[in-house]
Amino acid sequence: MAREKVLITGAAGFLGSHLCDRFINQGYHVIGMDNLITGDLRNIQHLFHLEQFEFFHHDVSKFVFVPGDLKYILHFASPASPIDYLKIPIQTLKVSSLGTHNILGLAKVKGAKVLVASTSEVYGDPLVHPQSEEYWGNVNPVGPRGCYDEAKRFMEAITMAYHDYHQLETRIVRIFNTYGPRMRLNDGRVLPAFIGQALRKEDLTMFGDGSQTRAFCYVDDLVEGIYRLLLSDYHLPVNIGNPDEITIKEFGEEIIKLTGTSQKLISLPLPKDDPKQRKPDISKAKALLGWEPKVTRQEGLKITYEYFKSLSNEELFKTEHRQFV
Ligand code: UDP
Fold it and tell me: What's the fold here for domain 181-215+244-276+295-317?
């Protein structure tokens, strides 16, 4: 019997590439799509020899054509770090608005079930803690994160409209901070920033006084939650993340201990609209999907550190990974 097909956009990115692996392992035929602005083919190069994997180099903001049947579509194409939004704000807006529209249109034509990657950024700088799916958020539409946050909010709205108006089978995952192998070393996110700095023997750049909090989920746990959500029959947004909250200062201290660096934490100005606290309420994922994270930060950080250590010196000292077009 022919394998069922899954389209994954953002396939060459951090999360997209791990999803490709998961769906290949589950016995699907995976079509990966990416325009490679922030994605990196090295994340999926191990899949190219497989007959059950294909890659389309395409920008999902433009009309998407995929031949044949599709069972599932996972829309994971988007820049996903504050540094990227500043560099490529228009592409960031387009991929989650025009791109999501194209993906939903494709899903409708194919009769495919579609899961879109939303984010804890829809809660903005939250006034409710921890954040449950019922909280509507506190987003600044015209601030530096506006292009990402508002595009993701639009993504949720248009996905709900296709569900309600066209009876499309849709799923919305709200992803909280996630880490693991294949994160981009220089994407500006705190974990690759701190580990990269430790490996280069630089001081670790803590923004503000480090009292802001985040809660970090290991990528394998996230992928499991997404897989379960896709297969569920629940169409409203579901938070997937690890509720183990930590201040950025404590996190920096953990990285110093893990890497054994003799460098120290230094404080740089806090970026505008940087959320002061973030922690997912995962009661819904627990109840609906029987899901909760299994990998502790200690275990996950060890694996991730090994990955960053395996990168070449050239990679480690490169200041910029991509030319933005
Ligand atoms: N951060 C930091 N130093 C860095 C990069 C980030 O202290 O070199 C802080 C940042 O201000 C934020 C937190 O770490 O409070 C998480 O930042 P990240 O960009 O990883 O994700 P997000 O803000 O989207 O959660």
Answer: UDP-galactose 4-epimerase; domain 1 (3.90.25)
